[in-house]
Write a structure and sequence with these properties.
By secondary structure, the protein is an all-alpha fold. The chain starts with a helix and ends with a helix. The chain has one domain. Helix content is 77%, strand content 0%. 11% of the residues are buried. The protein is built from three helices and no strands.
Length: 64
């Protein structure tokens, strides 16, 4: 496991529970906060970086 893969898992693991809690508390899901989107995008970037440098395979083509 690389540092990029670990950070991707941390980003996704942290972003979704907070988003669900916020939607539950506000009783709406009209959109997600900028912070949530930034954390998810950083997670995706870390996952892509891991695939490119440590575990390059055909899965990378599904991302693009």
């Amino acid at each position: 496991m690389s540092i990029f893969e670990a950070f991707m898992m941390v980003c996704f693991g942290a972003a979704w529970p907070f988003s669900i809690y916020k939607s539950y508390k506000s009783r709406t899901n009209k959109g997600k906060s900028l912070g949530f989107l930034i954390v998810v995008i950083i997670g995706y970037i870390c996952g892509i970086t891991h695939k490119i440098f440590y575990n390059y395979d055909n899965v990378i083509f599904y991302i693009f």
